[in-house]
Structure formats: C-alpha cells, structure tokens
C-alpha cells in the first residue's frame, strides 16, 4: 500500500541513486545544507531526487526535477571544509513526486508517494530473475567494470527479493541517467526485470567487444611493448566504435592549411582516405604517411619579400667581393626589371671560370642582396637521375630528389638555388641527370616540375637558379642553351693584391685570433707571395699562403709576446719556406727555333713554348709533347705554309726535302690540343729555316690556314692575363679578336703592345728579330 509523506528534498545534480543503496553525498549549496539540517531535526529522513538540468544552480519548481527519486535515511553528517559537508545516507524506497514547495525554513519540501510495485506474472518474473542472474554471472566474468564481490554475494544468495535485486544490480550496470530513471519510476516488477536483462545484455556486448579488441591488438604487437600496445588499443577502440581517428583529422587540417593547388589537395585527401581504411601497422600506411608529410612540408605559397633597393644590393655585393663587375651588373639589371614588371622573370645564370675566382661565394652574396634564402646543391659526381627527380613510391625507401628536398629546407617558393659544378654531372645505367635538369632549368617548363616521388606538378618559376662550372665543354648543348653564360676569368696581380688586403688578410687574422695591428702585409709582399708561391687564376692558393703566414705569426705571439712582428719581402721565406715558382727564364734571350704561344686551360690561361729542331734527313716530320690530332694537323699546316712562302724569305725549296723537322711542345706529360698554336708553329718553323731569332718579349695565338690567313680564337682574356703574368710586352692576336679587348682588364690592355694580324706575314714581321 502506497504512503504519502511530506519530507525535505535534496536536489542532486547528474546523479540518480537507487533504493537499497548506501551512498556518500557531498553537499555545497546553501539550500541543500538547509534541507539536511531540517531532515536531521525531524526524523533523519530526506528525499533524494535529481535535477533535470545538472548545471542549474537554483531550481524554480517541480518542473525542474525528475518525477521519481529515493527516500533515504541519514546515517552520518560531517564537514569536509567550511563550504562543503558530507552526508552518508541509505536509501530504502522509491517514491514519486506529487508536489514541491520552497519552505520558509529555506529549503525545498516535497510531497511524495511511495511506489507500490506489482507483480503481473509470477512465473515470468521467476524466469526473468533466473535469466538476469545468469547474465550477471557472465558479465562479472567478462567485464572489468563489474563489482565482482557484490555479484558473487548476490549469486550465492538463495533467493533475493525481486525489487531489491533490480535496485542493487541496476545501480551497478545502468550508467545512463535515462536508464536509471526508467528503472526507478517503473512500478511493474516484470518490466523492471526485463529492463535489467536488456542492460546486462548490452554490457555483455560491450565486454565482448573489448575482448575482441584486446585479442586483435595482441596479435598485432609483441609482448612487452606496453606503449605500442596502448596506442594500438586506442586505435582498435576507435575502429570498433566507427569513429575517425585524430591522426586522419590532423592530416586533413594540415592539408587544408597548406593552400596547395586544387589538384594536389585532391590527391592528398584521396591518399588520406586510403589511409583511414588501412590497418595502422600496414606497410602501405607508413608510405602514405611519409608521402602526405612531404606534400604538407613543401612550401606552396609562402615567399620572402625581395629587396628592391638597388643601392643596398650593390653595396652588399661590393662588400663581399672585389671585381666581378659583370655579375654584379647582371644582378642589378635583374632587380631593375623586377621593379618595373612587379614579377620574377627568372634568368638561369651560369658562372663559368677557373677554380678560386669566387663563383660559389658570389651566389651567396646574391641571395643576401636579394634578401632571399640561399640553397646549394652540389652536382659533382651525381650520376643518378633519381638524385634530381626522386624515386617512385613503388620502391622501398623511396625519397624525393634534391630539388624537392631543398625546397622543403628553404620553406619558401622563391629562394636562390645554386647548382654547383654542373659540368661535373655524370651519366651511367641509372639515367642521365643532365637530361633531368632540362626541365628544372627551362623557364617555360619548370612551372610544372614533377618529382617522381611527389607525382604532382610543382612550380619552380619563382626560384632564381644559378649554376657554376669550370668549363662549358662538358655541359650538354641542350642544357647549355637554357642558361645565360657569364664568364669569370682569373684575376690580375693588381686585383689579387686588392682582394688580399681587403678580404683575405682581415678574414684570416680574425680566424687565427690575431689582433688587427699585430702585423701587416704591404703590396710588395703580397705581390711576391702571388708571384713566387702561387700559380693560379683565382685566389684560393693565395688564401692558403696568407693562412700559413698567420699561423706562424700566431705561434710567435704566443711564444714571444713582446717581440715585434714584421713580415716583408726580405723575410717572407721564413714564413712560407722556399719559393715554389721562378720567373720563366725561357723568354730572357731571343732564340732561333723557339717561340712563346698561349693556351687556354680549365684553370685559366697559360704560356707554352714551341721548339723546333732541324736535322739532315728525308723531309720527315716528328711531333712530340703529347699533342692532340687537331694540334698535329696545325703543325703540318704551318710547315706547308712556310714551304709555300720559302722563296720570299730566301729559303731554298730543296732544303725541305733534305731536312727532317722535329716540333716539340714542352711539358710532355700534359695533353695539348687545339688549333690556336698555328701561327706560333709557323713562326718557329720559319725562324729555324731562315735562322732568324724570335723575340723573347712576343707571345702569339691564332689559327692559320694554308693561304696564310689568321683566324680568330677563344679564351683571349685568360691568355692575355697569362702573358701579362710572364712579363710579355707584345701580344700578336687575330684581327677579328680585337672586339674581345673590352672584356680584358684595363691595366693589361694598357701595358701590352697589341698586334692584330689578319695574315701570317704580319705575324712574321712583328715576331722575328730583324
């Protein structure tokens, strides 16, 4: 029989307590504290009911509470701190709310009616009870959340009251507030048992799923890998619940934030979709992650702001390098065009010159003057096409090529990228990297450069590409055609002295910790180092010699700190040892059968002597000095030319038939080739037959024909500088090379007497001593 009573109400937030359960409740609100105080004053009875909205601080009336709750007896009340008290209560019956009012005592009072439970079918209740106990036993054996001691106690009990049984077990397995409220408010014992059975079945399914997950994870990982096991378990749980993994969501966010082109973004998301359907430990999953990481790491839109101040750019270039005016002017022109057009019409520059002239370092200065990132790709010895284009993803360990890697390092789309030693590219069965460079260095194609690994077009049009090489001979013609060649020849002695004083000496003093005023090198001393200890077009060897001087000075500063240090021409050998090079004494005396020619090499220009010896014989010709086929043909052409002109110089034709000619070019271990020694050989042959000496102060270069015409040659600047270094005062060159004088340093042009010949007779008239 149901009872109706008026009782203090304790509003619970987010918690529904079943009857027949002992609970500890923390009370903090003033209205709740007052309700407990009133209950203790009256009969220690209180009505526990949950609010519909757990966040509501002050309920307004009956509409804010659930319709059913539990009657409880307060067993103990004690404070936790000044604001919170703890109440231990034991519920004993479920009740339905009839009315709620706020009492003048300062708390809520509820008029409630105890719920009168009815058994509709005794047999069905008995069967449901039996089924529930069986499910409870299975649940206890499979679920980690089950209170095994409580379940064991209930199962071992002979027979429990249906109502109490549902309340105790429901309190354990019903987790959602709606399920708990359904059980409390239901007055049918049959229905309450059925609801409990359904809840137990659901918990069993969850327990079985957890077991499946655990078994799946155990198969995928080895024993003892605890951290990895936990991660795999989390992934397996996500897969079981059908939820998207955080990893997939993070990848999608990264892809969208990278601002890729639409086609590239579409491909990246397609790969992520594939990843979401794969097992986490699948080898393909790792490949896809690596691929998407690369797509996200490469810059697609970010670019640095260019420095468009021409004066500042020129100042930076002058600070770092002496001379190199042609390169500096080209960069200033590039900046001017960029200011007018507002965009980059990127030239592909190629600096060609001997080692040590500053090709690589000037590129770093160019990047600094433009306020751009500097990247260097060394191509020396690269013989695999995949180094440039990358490997296809089908290969194990595939990675992108150097271009994509460097763009990732730069973090922007407009760096300055240096391809160093492009003439040293190799070629073998793995492909031709020079052919792969065609796309990179073509402004019309590099907008859609495709790396084999990335498989999507990448825009390289905003990159300023600069290449360096010692010679263009080894660069394939199609690749050479795509580049703007800027030649850097060697430095004159005056330029080297300036570079040493302004750059090399201060740099090495700082490097070796030498005070600035500890010692100095005057112009004469530096000139002697250049003349007697180096033989090069650049300044690399000069810097090594200056570093050697600095090391000796550093030793003196440490061992004899009070001693004055003087380095001059007189004591230079104490710092650098015996002089390594002597002035060429072959040009001191005018000689018959010896002339000075000029040659171009990969490391700059050089002088070479051509010697002729005549012997009685049958007119045979002997050529030595490791000469190439072209040079041998030039020698025979020169001999035939002299024979055709013999009568003009008083030489009898019979002498050629009775005389063997031996032409030798010294330094026989060094291969030599080319047609530019033609006029030198003709001059030295005529000198030998006419017994007229050749001037020691004259050097010459030029190709000659059988009719005596002098043809133009290449590398005049390097050859002129070599002649100047050897003290030559007169230089005979082809007339058509007169235009090349503008590329030769002004001091050399002024100090040398130039003879421009279009005919071999002009050469003879100026070379032979009259």
Account of the protein in words:
Helix 11 packs antiparallel against helix 13. The protein has a 7-stranded mixed sheet with strand order 16-17-15-14-18-21-22. It has a 5-stranded mixed β-barrel with strand order 1-3-4-5-6. It is of the alpha/beta class. Strand 19 (703-704) and strand 20 form a beta hairpin. The chain contains 27 helices and 22 strands. The longest helix has 32 residues, at 189-220. Helix content is 43%, strand content 17%.
Strand order of the largest sheet: 16-17-15-14-18-21-22
Distance between the termini: 151 Å
Kindly report the average pLDDT value. 83
Low-confidence blocks of residues: none
Let me know the largest β-sheet: 7 strands, mixed
Q: Into which percentage range does the β-strand content fall?
A: 15-25%
The assembly state of the depicted protein chains is: single chain
Number of helices: 27
Shape: elongated
Structural class: alpha/beta
Indicate the radius of gyration in whole angstroms.
49 Å
- Estimate the helix proportion, in percent: 40-55%
Give the strand tally. Answer: 22
